Amino acid sequence: MQISRAPHKYAAASMKRANAIWRKTKLGTIVPGNIVRVMFAIPSMDLKRAMATNVRRTRHEKELSQEELADRAGLSARYLGSIERATVSASVTVLGRLAQALHVDACELIRIPQRRR
């Protein structure tokens, strides 16, 4: 049995409506014609900002300067500064280099920091 892939005449309107709802609420992921609820959400902080916070915090804990950490990770100090300010998105390769240079698990660098009480 073959399933027809011809678009439904209301498919475009349905997608526009789904996109509008998603843009306003950010409650889910759009699958053609439907909004599928997200099973998990990252509360109030994206991974780029989480990584920035964690790299800076860990670097300070290890008493390293940006230049020292950048040298250990094979990065420029300017690029490391951009990562710590969350103005760039570091690749997985860079994440691994930083984790290795800081002697921590890479997951620790992208974990959402707990709020201080």
What key phrases describe this protein's structure?
2 domains; about 120 residues; elongated; 434 Repressor (Amino-terminal Domain); mainly alpha; two-stranded antiparallel sheet
Helix content: 40-55%
Number of strands: 2
Q: What strand order characterises the main sheet?
A: 1-2
Distance between the termini: 60 Å
Descriptive notes:
By secondary structure, the chain is mainly alpha-helical. It folds into two domains: 9-41, no CATH class; 47-110, lambda repressor-like DNA-binding domains (434 Repressor (Amino-terminal Domain), Orthogonal Bundle), CATH 1.10.260. Helix content is 53%, strand content 7%. Strands 1-2 form a two-stranded antiparallel ribbon. The longest helix is centred in the N-terminal third of the chain and has 15 residues, at 11-25. It is elongated, with a radius of gyration of 21 Å. The N and C termini lie far apart (60 Å). The relative contact order is 0.12.
Topology:
Elements: H1 11-25, E1 28-31, E2 34-37, H2 47-61, H3 66-73, H4 77-84, H5 92-102, H6 106-110
Antiparallel strand pairs: 1-2
Helix pairs in contact: 3-4, 3-5
